[in-house]
Amino acid sequence: MMDWVVASCLITGVLFSFFSALGILRMPDAYIRMHSSTKAGTIGVGLIMVAVTLHFHDTSVISRAIGIITFLLMTAPVAAQLLGKSLLINNYRMWRGHQQD
User: Fold this and answer.
1) DSSP code for 28
2) Are 41 and 16 in contact (CB under 8 A)?
């Protein structure tokens, strides 16, 4: 039973990471690329680390995986915000199809 949970977390995490990479390649604007990489990439790596923690029953592996998840959850939003702020300061033009509120 646990193997199915580990496999589903791993497959879902890989799919999220794949869609993150695909979003970086396919999206027309740096702002949208940044959104794709931070959201889907963080969820993807987080699910892969959850699969690692469920598979290995070693305290050092589990603590490292939790540290990786915590580090990503703390740094990815900050990095995306700083990147977006620098794009905005440097007058990076948005995609023409973008509609502003």
Assistant:
1) S
2) yes
CA 42 to chain centre: 2
By CB atoms closer than 10 A (0-12, 13-18, 19+), residue 78 is exposed
3-state secondary structure of 101: coil
The string of DSSP codes covering 77-95 is HHHHHHHHHHHHHTTPPPP
Q: What is the DSSP letter of 29?
A: S
| Angle of helix 30-55 versus helix 59-89 axis, rounded to 10 | 180
Q: Each residue of 13-62: pLDDT tens digit?
A: 999 999 999 988 988 888 888 888 888 889 999 999 999 999 998 999 99
